[in-house]
Design brief:
By secondary structure, the protein is of the alpha+beta class. Helix content is 28%, strand content 28%. Strands 1-2-3-4-5-7-6 form a 7-stranded mixed beta sheet, with helices on both faces.
Length: 160
Amino acid sequence: MSYQLEVIRPEYDAEICQIIKRVGEEYGAVGEGFGPGDAEVSHMSQHYTANTKSLYLVAKIGNKIVGGCGLAAFNNSTTTCELRKLFLLEESRGLGLGKTLTEACLTFAREQGYQRCYLDTLSNMIAAIKLYEKLGFEHLSAPLEGTPHGKCDVWMLKQL
């Protein structure tokens, strides 16, 4: 099945918001302290296109958005970025989309001069954790100070 990646645009905001919240619910990531509860979720394009050191990509199969993944500075850092909101609808999992999205974000991070990439996730997102491990992310014993996602229970970091 072929897919394409596109940079987030305002007309994609409502659809990606629904996907992030729906997949978040599937894994119990509901409310404050989880990525789907972040204020940016309802207007992703505003948060990722206004800043040149951030990026959010949507994945499409045909004309349908099936997920996305983003990258932005962690806590306004110039050296540490954060992989954000990799969420895929169930029908699009297992196609290599997560890997493709993550690799595109990490390439962008290197181009922007970031030295390391942080992420936080949930221990029940097993496939995602395996992907991150394969891509060189290492487990941390605690979150980086300043993360708004206090309810996540897996923290990882990759040197770029």
